[in-house]
Amino acid sequence: MGVDVVARLLSCSRPVFFERIEDEEYPYHSGAGSAFVCSWIGQLFVITSRHVVAGQDLDDLRIRVHDDSDAFIAFDRSWTPQELGPDYKDVVALRVAAPLTDDRLRQEAITFSSDLALAGMGTLVHGRAMAIGGYPDCIREIDYDDLSIRYRRACLSGRYVGVAFEKSDRVHTLAIDDRHAISEVNGLSGSPIVAVTSNGTVVLAGIAIRGGDTMKHIHFLDTGVLCRFLELTAA
């Protein structure tokens, strides 16, 4: 899998923060997850796992426009699945408010469509090369002197090893090749997972929703679920 192509696609990922206005000494809470920006039928969305924002006020959600920016993305609406099965509800979509004047954000967004969803489903073959890009808690650091959170994106390679549960064929497992790059997988929920198709194209394969039975495994929802969800949000 081309390292440059993967890095470019995974540049769509963002860390999740929540603002705490009442806390004057430290106004930001790092959250416990990741998210990614995608383009669907010309609209930009930020997608993350539902449990990442559970119990939080979405008005306090802060997603940076870029990793090196102090500006945050503005949202005008959010959706959670209503018509999907219970196994597939761990996802939330937030629509980026228009007008969008930041061309770089649109360029970093991963393009998604029903055709690309089918391509992503086609990568779910045992042993297929995959990669995940997100912000594990182990490489987030709070700097209390300047009231900031330091973080960096972890891009980890792996391979597809099959469905996660016998009764749920839409939740899959990614086995990370070299987990020594990080000490834990907490914080990777909501991260995008990409894979290489049979013709060499790298496409979105799914969204991470939780760690597996071991620290080396990540469970994720496939692009078929994401496609159906975004179809419902755009309806």
Question: Would you summarize the structure shown here?
Answer:
The protein is of the alpha+beta class and 235 residues long.
Walk me through what this model shows:
The chain has 235 residues and is an alpha+beta fold. It has a single domain, classed as Thrombin, subunit H. 16% of the residues lie in helices and 38% in strands. The strands form four sheets. Strands 1, 4, 5, 7, 8 and 9 form a six-stranded mixed beta sheet that branches. A six-stranded antiparallel barrel has the order 10-13-14-17-16-15. A three-stranded antiparallel beta sheet has the order 3-2-6, with no helix packed on it. A hairpin with a 5-residue loop joins strand 16 and strand 17. The longest helix is centred in the last third of the chain and has 12 residues, at 223-234. The protein is globular, with a radius of gyration of 17 Å. It starts with a helix and ends with a helix. The model has no long low-confidence stretch (mean pLDDT 83).
